[in-house]
Design goal:
ribosomal protein, 60S ribosomal protein L27, 31% strand, SH3 type barrels, 15% helix, 5-stranded antiparallel β-sheet, single chain, alpha+beta, Translation_prot_SH3-like_sf
Length: 119
């Protein structure tokens, strides 16, 4: 069977807090590691989508409703559903690794850069 969980593949999160959200595979680990002994992927996705905006709203309300909130998380392959789509991810590969879970400032920086992605 071929590998279908590839880098920059768009996936749907099936379980957990972000279930139903779209995400992009940033890094995939096929055979597991010592701390995660199963196939898993580091994904980057959208937590909160922009809300509807109408012309009668003020500038502050429009700015607040236009924000996108992103997440970066490690998921088991069984909690992800692959789609046929893939995107060109401009994320820096040196920044996005498992060390970002140990440093909150680095995680904040990666989440901020992830907002620029176009799903």
């Amino acid at each position: 069977m071929g590998k279908f969980m590839e880098l920059r593949k768009v996936v749907l999160v099936l379980a957990g807090r972000h279930s139903g959200s779209k995400a992009i595979i940033v890094k995939n680990i096929e055979y597991g590691t010592s701390d995660h002994p199963y196939s898993h992927a580091l994904v980057n996705g959208i937590d909160c989508y922009p809300s509807k905006v109408i012309a009668a709203m003020g500038k502050k309300k429009i700015a607040k409703r236009s924000k996108i909130k992103s997440f970066v998380k490690v998921y088991n392959y069984s909690h992800l559903m692959s789609t046929r789509y893939s995107v060109d991810s401009p994320l820096d590969k040196t920044v996005v690794n498992k060390d970002l879970f140990r440093d909150p400032a680095l995680k904040h920086k990666v989440r901020h850069e992830a907002k620029k992605l176009r799903f």
